[in-house]
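User: Here's a structure from my thesis project, written as structure tokens. My advisor, Dr. K., wants to see whether a designed sequence matches the one we expressed. Can you design one independently, without my sequence as a hint?
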């Protein structure tokens, strides 16, 4: 239990599910895990757009600046250096290029990230290793988010 604060949140959830099978035997651990998860969810709710909406919070958004030449960049290509993807988005009836940075994934909805995954997978110029890295990171984040959303009571 001493390592709990250093564990990956997804591992917390797995441990929580294991302990939940026999609550009476593991009651002190179970109670500690519940407190840790609640605190973690409240912290995530400060930045994660979907969890914040369920908790009736306004997320703290500090997105990174987009490059000046963004309108000239091709859509769906993975930028290996910054782990980012250019995608098209309609704002105010105008279609414009935007840049999705993996480090900002908490500020995108599940639907938006799934659409970005579709665009990335459709772009044949992306290398298999870049595609795997980006897909794995986004899918992992979506799985953790879904699990946290499921456990919010």
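Assistant: Designed independently from the structure alone:
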């Amino acid at each position: 239990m001493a390592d709990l604060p250093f564990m990956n949140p997804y591992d917390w959830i797995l441990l929580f599910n294991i302990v939940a099978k026999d609550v009476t035997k593991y009651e002190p651990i179970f109670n500690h895990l519940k407190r840790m998860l609640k605190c973690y969810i409240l912290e995530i709710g400060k930045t994660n757009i979907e969890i914040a909406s369920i908790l009736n919070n306004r997320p703290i958004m500090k997105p990174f600046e987009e490059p000046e030449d963004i309108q000239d960049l091709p859509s769906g290509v993975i930028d290996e250096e910054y782990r980012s993807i250019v995608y098209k988005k309609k704002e105010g009836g105008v279609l414009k290029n935007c840049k999705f940075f993996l480090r900002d994934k908490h500020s995108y909805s599940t639907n938006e990230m799934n659409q970005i995954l579709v665009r990335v997978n459709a772009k044949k110029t992306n290398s298999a290793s870049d595609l795997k890295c980006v897909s794995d990171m986004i899918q992992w984040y979506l799985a953790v988010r879904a699990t946290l959303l499921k456990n919010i009571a």
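When you compare it with your expressed construct, this may help: Residues 128-151 form the longest helix (24 residues).
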